[in-house]
Amino acid sequence: MPVKKTTAPQVLLNNVGALPELLSNIAANMLLEIEIGCGNGHFLSRYAEKKELSYLIGVEFKKKRCLKALKKIQTYKLTNAAIIQGKAEELIERLPANSVDKFHIYFPDPWPKTKHRRRRFLRMTNLENLCRSLKPGGEILFCSDIYDYYLQAKLLFLISGKLRLSEIPPPPQVLKSIFGRKFLSVGKKIFFISSRKLAD
Q1: Domain limits of the chain?
Q2: Do residues 142 and 105 make contact, with C-beta atoms less than 8 angstroms apart?
Q3: How far is CA 29 from the centre of its chain?
Q4: Residues forming the active site
Q5: Is the pLDDT of residue 10 over 60?
Q6: In whole angstroms, what is the distance from residue 60 CA to residue 105 CA?
Q7: Angle between the 63-75 and 42-50 helix axes, to the nearest 10 degrees?
Q8: Cα(37)–Cα(107) distance, integer angstroms
Q9: Contact at 8 Å (CB) between 142 and 190?
Q10: Within a 10 A sphere around the Cβ of 180, how many other Cβ atoms?
């Protein structure tokens, strides 16, 4: 049976307030995956091409990056992806409980200075919202070139009480993204970690 295509709008750039309408237009038989900080859309567009049974939502704060990501979606004529401009923290607060199959968090701003680490996206308050909106068995995939951030993510996953570390490998598109290619080209190590939500 052919997969029902979503009727979610592709031409206009969505804002966080448009999230309920966007979610309501996604076909019921599709998985929902969200990329936190999708940048220019390199990963999201390539990944969506290979994931016809998933609907990808990328959230990015900077409008210029959002427009570049949206252009890629249009260029590749993807019907299973959309971009939301806004703060990721606000978006995950608005997500319905048990609604997301997978979160992608790749090369987030590391805020390397000790006094700035509280600004990192992956902190306990945000992780609680990610877990709340994940379906049981849903996944959080995280990647960084900063070892300290990788350790922080691993510790948060372990102490959350709602996640179990898993051996899921990173999607190959991660290493083909703009940051993935950049770090690999200079021989920089990339740290990847994955976790799965425990059953309620």
Answers
A1: 14-197
A2: yes
A3: 20
A4: 109
A5: no
A6: 12
A7: 30
A8: 9
A9: no
A10: 21
